């Protein structure tokens, strides 16, 4: 008996996070076999879904097999063309067995597709239980076995948030809630993957090649890393990994980081030696002086040895305004005297992505 073969995939679309949208689409094409041939009994019990055939063996139940078949229809794998899949279970591990074109199992890009596909099946059909994918020839003989990406799944307003198994659900929920709040999860299909590397949070996002190579993309994501650090991860470091459509790493951006305090509509992030007490003194002073006036303004406080470094996001062109520069020098002197015991203060006038445009110092 020759079974039906998986021959390829539909290319997904994607765009960057924070002002860009992300869509992870996954689909498959089919091959054919000889008419009139019937499956061997050794393949297990046969079910049919939209002209695709699914075989299963105990201890996999009919209910589990049916759920898998329905998912494969919904996902577009079983698309009205003949294909063959088998699901078995051995020592607590599900084995999703796919018939593939000869040689495709050796293709690294194909393997990345399979890793993500296996993750989707594990999380959406089998509740995150361990699953491997066997790539088979047209007689269901195993050619190679692929370990899928491992993660848990949270569905959020039409999107998906995967998180590594050693990431607490509460941390993933905070990220998901924030991404929904800022409109990233907006009812359209989008996917994010949350992991952790030591004390650094890793946020993987799917991007197009064009976006990954765009001018300023590193600064954009470094800035978004600061937002996540302060709003979600209590000041911890954040690394943004720009990935292809199968979560394959393409580019890494180390985000800015800092804990975040609010002051009358404004915000100050602090990190790298600056303390919460120093930040509070600064924030209270800026309320008193009328700088924090109920409108949103963003600062970041760090230290360089004994000197304070105060980054300030300013409107376009203000860094070139000499009168404004003189005002900022007076501002730096006042902050030095009233908040930091006359320690030197360097005010960095920054772009919206925290790129330094000009530095004005108190001394």
Can you tell me about this structure?
The protein has seven helices and 18 strands. By secondary structure, it is an alpha/beta fold. Residues 1-39 have low confidence and may be disordered. It has helices at residues 62-75, 108-125, 169-181, 209-212, 217-231, 276-288, 322-339; strands at 45-49, 52-56, 84-90, 93-99, 131-136, 142-146, 152-156, 159-163, 191-197, 200-206, 238-243, 249-254, 259-263, 266-270, 298-304, 307-313, 345-350, 356-361. Helix 7 links the parallel strand 16 and strand 17 (345-350). The strands form three sheets. The protein has a six-stranded mixed sheet, with helices on one face.
Secondary-structure blueprint:
Elements: E1 45-49, E2 52-56, H1 62-75, E3 84-90, E4 93-99, H2 108-125, E5 131-136, E6 142-146, E7 152-156, E8 159-163, H3 169-181, E9 191-197, E10 200-206, H4 209-212, H5 217-231, E11 238-243, E12 249-254, E13 259-263, E14 266-270, H6 276-288, E15 298-304, E16 307-313, H7 322-339, E17 345-350, E18 356-361
Parallel strand pairs: 2-3, 4-5, 8-9, 10-11, 14-15, 16-17
Antiparallel strand pairs: 1-2, 3-4, 5-6, 7-8, 9-10, 11-12, 13-14, 15-16, 17-18
Short note summarizing the structure:
The chain contains seven helices and 18 strands.
Determine the number of helices (DSSP H or I, runs of at least 4 residues): 7
Class by SSE composition: alpha/beta
Mean pLDDT across the residues is: 86
Shape estimate: elongated
Query: How are the strands of the biggest sheet laid out side by side?
Result: 1-2-3-4-5-6
Unreliable parts: 1-39
Span from first to last CA? Answer: 84 Å
The quaternary structure here is single chain
Helix content: 25-40%
Order of helices and strands: EEHEEHEEEEHEEHHEEEEHEEHEE
Sheet of most strands: 6 strands, mixed
Radius of gyration: 27 Å
